[in-house]
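[agent] plan:
  1. take the single chain provided in the ticket
  2. run structure prediction with default settings
  3. attach C-alpha cells to the ticket
  4. add a short note for the reviewer (M.T.)
[agent] executing step 1
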Amino acid sequence: MIKIHNLHSYYGAIEALKGIGLWVRSGKITCLIGSNGAGKTTLLKSISGAVDCKGSIKYNDSTELIGRSSQKIARLNITHVPEGRHIFPGLTVKENLEVGTINWHGFFGRMPYQKEMEEVFELFPRLKERENQLGWSLSGGEQQMLAIGRALMSRPRVLMLDEPSMGLAPVIVSELFEKITEINRQGTTILLVEQNARLAMKVSDYTYVIDHGRIVLEGESLEVRKDPRVIKSYLGKFAKSHR
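[agent] step 2 finished; step 3 output follows
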C-alpha cells in the first residue's frame, strides 16, 4: 500500500530520519516501535506531508507523496490520527465527526454521510450516547475514540495511528485495541505507532523497530517479539514500569 525508500526528513537543519525504508502492507496492521525521539512520529508526519523530506514515499506503487500537500494526501484516503487526539473541544461529538468528511464532502457539499456516521456509532456506542456533548467534556478514552471516529469519517484506505493508548487506563486501552483490530478486519490498512510495544506487536502483522532515525530491526511481529534485543530494550522495560 505504501512503500518508503531512502527517506530523509528534516526539522530545519536537523535530520530526524536517516534513509528509512519500509513497506506498509495492504490490508495488514504494521507497527513501528522505538524509544522517545527515535523518529516514529516524524515518519507519520512525513507520509502526511507535514515535514520536509526527500527520498520516496509511493502509494499504490505509483503515486509519489513527497511534494504533495497534506490536503492532497488526505484526499487519497490516507488519514492520520495524531498523538494527543487534537479533537475540537468547542464542537460537539457529532460536529467533530462531521469535520472528518471534509476531504471528500467539502465545506458545502451535499453528499450524505449518514452511513459513515452510523458505522462510527456502531463501532463506538459511547459516542452515540454523547453525540451532543462538547468535545472538552469527554474522558480521555472517549476523546481517543472520537479522534479515531473522525478519521473513519474520511473513508480511509490507510489509517495512521500515533500513540493511541497514551494516557489511558489499561481497561480502556484493551477496549480501544479491540476496536483497532476490528477496523482492520473491515478492510482498512493500519500503520500503528505505539508506546506499548507488547500490545502493538500482539495485534500487528509486521513490526519495524526504529532507533535514532534508522530502522534497526524488522520482521513478522510474532518473531520480533522473541528477539532478545527487543525483549531487553522494549518489552522488559515496559514490564518493569507496569508492575
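[agent] step 4 note for reviewer: The chain has a mean pLDDT of 88.
[agent] ticket updated
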